[in-house]
Structure formats: structure tokens, C-alpha cells
Amino acid sequence: MKRKTAAEKPHEHLIKDAKKLVLEYPKVPLTVDCAIFGFEENKLKVLVIKSDLEYYKGHYSLLGDIVKDNEELDDAAYRVLKERTGMNDVFLDQVRAFSHPDRHPGGRVITVAYCSLLNINHHQLKIHDNDLNWHSVSTLKDMAFDHKEIVDECYSWLQKRIQEHPLGFNLLPEKFSLRELQNLYEAILAVSLDRRNFRKKFASMDLLIDINEMEQDVPHRPGKLYKFNFEKYEKSKRKWIGIDF
Asked: Which among 113, 109, 79, 81 is positioned nearest to 95, based on CA atoms?
């Protein structure tokens, strides 16, 4: 066994020039893409824009851009949202990276997808360049790049998320009926839910406040109105196990 001599210096195998090391790395552009889902008239929609790349002329894409050298990923996503829509009151969640070598026709580009869910009536689009608008998720087909795959992945993530956390209540009016609540979950989960079981499930969670009011001016039999007990949820959310339909 070879013994270390006094002349040998510890850590001599370590790389000293970090900058030189990074310069030797492959140069792969990094972008962010935002899948902004909106709920309106019992439909789930996603915000899309016409691609400005000739290769995808006429195709819709998500809101995205390159990440600048001095930007955090989150900062880049919020910048894109602000520059393209004018909205600055939307919370974004990072979903995952998409890194297929052929996802961009110009070469290797890695993108990180962000997702959000909002009530369209509460967030006004201030910019409409490149045909920026809301499109129904169920009718959205071919898209630029791999953006349909990103939409599908973010949609699946959102469906799981809304069952794990009571996100949907932020999309409803302050006072809502159980019919409105069920319509919301059916639209996002893309399923038909049994009315009796749905109501029993939410009753068992004991997070709805009966405010002793009824719906007004509705084309169906008026239902009771409720509020969501956010205060009680905050105190008990560590025990929250989600909503299993």
C-alpha cells in the first residue's frame, strides 16, 4: 500500500478554475413556458397565443421565452406572463422540465413548464397581441413545438393538485351553491360525478359554511348558498388528505 508523503497536497485533484469548466459545458438554451388554465362558464380553458415562428405558422403555442443569464426561473416565468398578458396578479407553480432533444425545430432547447389556475372573470387580459386568447382545453388539438404535450402534462398535474388542495374554491364566488361547486370539479376533472356522493363527500369534510341564503334568479330550483371555511382549513390542513372522487 502506498503511503502519502509530506510533499503530497490534499485535494490536489480538485478543479480550480470553475469558470473554465463551465465554458467547456455544452451550450443548451433554457426557456420557460406558462400553461395558464382558466375557469369560465363551467368550462376549463387555457391561454394560448399564435406562434411567431414561421415553421409553426398558424399554430398556437403557450406563453414562453428564453431565460436570461441573470434570471431565476421563477422570475423569467413571471416576466413572460407580465410582458405577454399585462397580468401581474397570477400565482405560478413549477411543474417540470421538458428536454426531448428534438422538441424544437431549431436545435436542442430545454424548457421548464409553469402552471396556474384562475377565474377568467377575475383576471383581465390587457394585451391581445398574436391572437392571444382563451381556448377550451377539450378542443385544443395540434400546437407548436411539444406544447400540446406540455398542456396535457400540466392538466394532469392540475387535476391531481385540485384533489390534494382546495384550489377550486378560489375560482368560485364568495357565496356559491353545491351545484356550482360540482360543476367546477366536473369541468376540471373531466368526469361526471354522482350528485349524492359529491355532496356527502364535502359534508363529511365539514369545511362549508351554510349562510342561510338561497340562490336568486336562477333557471333551476334555487339551492342553498355556502362559503368555504378557509380559516378552519388553515388550522387543519396538516390533516388534509385530499378529495378522492
From this structure: 113
Q: Which residue has the cell 374554491?
A: 169
In tens, the pLDDT along 230-240 reads 888 887 766 66
How many residues in the chain?
245
Interatomic CA distance for residues 120 and 28, integer angstroms: 35
The grid cell for 180 is 356550482
Q: What is the DSSP secondary structure assignment for residue 4, as one 8-state letter?
A: P
Domains and CATH numbers, the chain: 23-164 (3.90.79.10), 169-239 (1.10.10.10)
Query: Measured in whole angstroms, how far is the alpha carbon of residue 227 from the centre of its chain?
Result: 25
Condensed to tens digits (0 to 9), the pLDDT of residues 12-42 reads: 778 788 888 778 777 899 999 999 999 998 8
| Cβ neighbours for 174, distance < 8 A, ≥ 6 positions apart | 227
Type of residue numbered 172 = L
Q: Say how far apart CA 187 and CA 135 lie, in whole Å.
A: 14
> Which of 57, 70, 64 is closest to 32 using CA atoms?
64
3-state secondary structure of 33: strand
Q: What is the pTM for the complete model shown?
A: 0.86
Residue with cell 398535474: 157
Q: Which residues of 162-172 are buried (b: 16+ CB within 10 A; e: fewer)?
A: bbeebebbebb
